[in-house]
Amino acid sequence: MVSAFRIISYLEGISYLLILFVTMPLKYLFASPEPNKVIGMAHGFLFLIYIVFAFLIKSEKKWNVKTLAIVLLCSIIPFGTFWMDGKYLSKK
């Protein structure tokens, strides 16, 4: 399940960066909202899956509430999911 969460966290992080740095400028600078709708829908779906998986992984990885909160917070910080993967999910 951890490997699936790693994939979801990467996809969620990439979709978030696409929204911030590609589709939002397209929407507001070039009046092209269509890419934002498509990527935004995908990101919303991935975000929800990320949250569900974080709660499912909590017991498997034996995270305390503080660690779970950090993992959840990483989903709303740009590049946060990539840092979280290295800190809490990668095999050491």
Automatic annotation (TrEMBL):
UniProt organism field: Aquimarina amphilecti
Keywords on record: Cell membrane, Membrane, Transmembrane, Transmembrane helix
Entry keyword annotation includes Glycosyltransferase: no
Residue ranges annotated for the DUF3817 domain, each copy included: 3-88
Pfam families: DUF3817
Claim: Hydrolase is one of the keywords in the record: no
Any one of the GO CC terms: plasma membrane
Primary site of residence: membrane
Membrane-spanning segments: 7-26, 38-56, 63-84
Subcellular location per the Swiss-Prot or TrEMBL entry: Cell membrane
Topology versus the membrane: Multi-pass membrane protein
The protein's name: Integral membrane protein
